[in-house]
Amino acid sequence: xxxxxxxxVISIVIxxxxxxxxxxxxxxxxxxxxxxxxxxxxxxxxxLSLHPQKNFVGLQNYRDLFTNFIHGRFRQDLINAVxxxxxxxxxxxxxxFFFAVLLDRKVRGEGFFRTLFLYPMALSFIVTGTIxxxxxxxxxxxxxxPTFFGGEPVDFLWISSRKRVLSFNWQNIPQIxxxxxxxxxxxxxxxxxxxxxDKHRLRxxxxxxxxxxxxVVLHRLLPPILPVEELHGYNLATLxxxxxxxxxxxxxxxxxxxxxxxxxxxxxxxxAQLDGAGEFLFYWKIAIPNLKPITLSAVIVLAHISLxxxxxxxxxxxxxxxxxxxxxxxxxxxxxxxxxxxxxxAMAVILFILAAFFIIPYLVNTHREMx
Amino acid sequence: MKKLAQMVILLGLxxxxxxxxxxxxxxxxQAASGTQKTVEQVQLNNNxxxxxxxxxxxxxxxEGPALEALIKVFKAKYPKVNVINAxxxxxxxxxxxxxxxxxxxxxxxPESFQVHxxxxxxxxxxxxxxxxxxxxxxxxxxxxxVFPEDLLKLLGTDDGIWSVPVNIxxxxxxxxxxxxxxxxxxxxxxTWADFLKIAPQLQAKGVIPLSVxxxxxxxxxxxxxxxxxxxxxxxxxxxxxxxxxxxxxxVDVWRTFAxxxxxxxxxAASLSWQQATDMVVNGKAAFNIMGDWAAxxxxxxxxxxxxxxxxxxxxxxxxxxxxxxxxSFGLPVGVENPDAAVAWLKTCGSLEGSDTFNPLKGSISxxxxxxxxxxxxxxxxxxxxxxxxxxxxxxxxxxxANEGFMNDFSTVMEMFLSSRDPQQAxxxxxxxxxxxxxxx
Lengths: 371, 440
Hints:
The structure holds two protein chains of two kinds.
Chain A: H1 2-37, H2 60-67, H3 72-104, H4 110-118, H5 125-135, H6 145-148, E1 164-169, H7 173-194, H8 201-221, E2 231-235, H9 238-263, H10 266-274, H11 279-290, H12 292-306, H13 310-317, H14 327-336, H15 341-370
Chain B: H1 2-24, E1 51-57, H2 64-77, E2 81-87, H3 94-105, E3 112-116, H4 119-126, H5 135-141, H6 143-146, H7 149-155, E4 156-157, E5 160-161, E6 164-165, E7 169-170, E8 173-176, H8 178-184, H9 192-204, E9 208-211, H10 215-240, H11 248-261, H12 273-281, E10 285-289, H13 293-301, E11 311-314, E12 321-325, E13 327-330, H14 338-349, H15 351-361, H16 377-388, E14 390-393, H17 403-419, H18 422-435
Parallel strand pairs in B: 1-2, 1-3, 9-10, 12-14
Antiparallel strand pairs in B: 3-13, 4-5, 6-13, 7-12, 8-10, 8-11
């Protein structure tokens, strides 16, 4: 017993320095950023003076970011960030799996191909960005490939296009959310009505019914969040950057999947073949479900990488190209160029919360596995 | 037992998280009542400067030799001073400004740093009370007589003069290739109406009437359009806050600007300013509006002869007005070696210093008494305009607007490039002008 207590004390003493350092330099500063985001530091001039004026303004900065028309660029950045994440994940996972399946067939020179596919990951985003900026130049790179076959050069503007698809009006955001909520609640009610013999049926009906009423009524009461129409959507200019990011990380998911496929017992494949499953059916029905943990960790790693695409976008499109913007670039400009520290901090906190959405499930998951 | 350890760690961490913000934000309210400004004035004395002098700038690469030459002049005069030439590379100081901010906030200011003269300096560092008023130096050196009065007004505020300009660039210049214009049968337009008349003809010949590059070059074009449409009086009044951005005259600027944009290249966002200038030189585009560093680029890098191979006129409707921007050096509060810093500023403003620096840099001197025989054909014409024209400040290069406004203006510009809605852009500008303290 004493031994154990002594161990505990020692372990605490050993851990203490790193706990202190992490506490101050990670969590302390996260806390400080949150506090700054609730002030008006940098709203007025003189934000860089020795004793800057900071007044508590509550959630004003956050409200402004979502509803003040000056911050329209930030809202487009958020939507860009969603598309960057989705395309990176979908692209890297599917391509990576495809490459892994090809390599799994024991081709000749497997080691060579494996390195070839994995190699892009060793590059930094700045290098990738510079190369791909050249490849996507409006009058060079990919656009002149057709001329090698006697065709006309393409004039698609990969990273400077101003075209936008899937447009929607930001004023409709509450409507979209409320409609989704109302549909969800109604479906729950219908389910309750269909299932019989539930003793809580009446209570549940009341709860969900009130929810629908609440959503519908609140929806009517809310003022429009923006004075003018503001269109957002998928900017075609981001496509080039997404392609570069998929190129860089497809090899990484390939390595993960290849290890997973190799770890599948041979008997599994044999028994599937005995049961008459073809190649496709085997991968679709057996391999993919068995690789679910790998997919999960790949998704989490890719998701948080997609929130850190600052350098890739900076190298490919520059900081001022609003069409390819990302909240992290906007945060850098707002803080260090416009000296608006409070609003920059608010953007940082929003990014932090987005990252937490991906990191926390990952931590919970690994924690469970450790048990 | 394990649970307990976990609990301890968890508790420790969470209390740290909770406590830290409390004392991290414990110092803020001190300056809240400080409405009266304390202005520190430069101290002039007869000490012989010695010791270390750190000069912070973003002049490396092409502009490096000019700075080296200026430092040589300084060393000849003050041999006891050891000059530390601290440069952070990156065009228009994108990286240097960020490094400078961390150094100033960290209490380690360089003796003197390069900064765009005007509001970019004033809005960031003067309002933060981190700069020294240089008025006594200007008076002692007689600079109030040799620098144009309009220029001095834009360099200072009511409280003082904040930096010494080492060079002057002109922003409102339209560049073209005379031989090409002859071939296409057009002449350089003097009004925007003229431009809009000849632009369709050029387009019909497969020529882009006006080339632009990434966003800041579009802002640069905007300020020339604004100066042309508003005229120098209203243009200055706009920055003084006397005309609101929502005024019909300003909305007209955006309307004209939208029409002009219809005749520009579509791949602008991925081009640098050099590439936009190249389009004019190789005959893809007819005109380009860019600052006169384009003259340096065409003369030195492309080996063209000013006046023969390439030509220039003031941008449409701005004849008689010189829209300037300037690099300057200021003196931060609390530097270690103020004597050497003042000596450096004296060199920057001296006739010898500026006539050594500017011909190499491809700019003109802020002094009206400089020796024109040292400069090339373009610079001579710019210098004579500078001496006789009305002088106004540039937006895109930080003379008339602070950094906050400039940053937000880029956002408004991006909005406008997508929406092309003049009224909306004007409203947005009014909002960001109020937010950034430009309208008092």
